[in-house]
Prior knowledge:
Layout: E1 5-6, H1 24-27, E2 40-41, H2 43-49, E3 51-58, E4 61-67, E5 76-79, E6 86-88, H3 96-104, E7 110-112, H4 122-129, E8 133-136, E9 150-153, E10 157-159, E11 165-168, E12 177-181, H5 184-187, E13 190-194, E14 198-199, E15 206-207, E16 209-211, E17 216-217, H6 220-230, E18 237-240, E19 246-247, H7 251-267
Parallel strand pairs: 6-7, 7-8, 8-9, 13-18
Antiparallel strand pairs: 1-2, 3-4, 4-5, 5-6, 10-11, 11-12, 12-13, 14-15, 16-17, 18-19
Helix pairs in contact: 6-7
Amino acid sequence: MPHYICTNCGTQYAETVQPPEECAICIEEREFVAWEGQKWTTSDQLAKSHRNVIHQEEKGLTGIGMEPSFAIGQRGLLITHPEGNVLWDCISLLDDSLVEMLNGIGGLSAIAISHPHYYSCMMEWAETFDCPVFLHHADRKWVMRSGPAIEYWEGDRKNIGAGLTLIRCGGHFDGGTVLHWPAGAGGKGVLLSGDIIHVVQDRRWVSFMYSYPNLIPLSASKVRQIVNCVEPFEFDRIYGAWWGKTVSSNAKAAVDRSARRYIQHLQE
């Protein structure tokens, strides 16, 4: 039986004879059902219409995306390290050429994901590379295809090796997570943020939302919570969830001033 994939959000579901009637991720208020209605695809179909693309973001960090863009359009980020390569966030396609390339540099030692909108085909990736997927326990109910590779973690921080730390910020989702990579940006530190901390069009700034497509803001207390969670960590750069969405320098200051601006507008 196929594992159907929602074409609107890219989430892969457990095996079924027929596609699910609706996507639980899309009908929830943070997302939306496509205007033309619910549609589904499979990994085999995706492999015929799309391909993986890779671009180096900086030394030790590579972006992995899809062409043409699919579903939400995010790209994953691969941190390479002698202790093991870690994929941050996930996408819905894993083609043969990408598998060959990744195996050639040591495969994956772990996958970590910021929040349910990027769970996509995480189990296919985990099974292909025989590695764990780290998800925060607070978002467990949003897993549509489960498996033994998933390791749910609790609390506010988790070290996953190679100096990498998962930080639970909440906000967009209760388990919303960012990844701190201290060796990034030439040793000044990098935050991989998905859209828990969202790099906006003016890339000197970031923002914070409960729902981006439906424009539902976060409360002032939630924004302060996110800032407080990342405050102990040093980082000069932030990589968001999409190509080019990067605060290239002074990123920690950008988070602080963006939070102040956001809260000020909530209170006016």
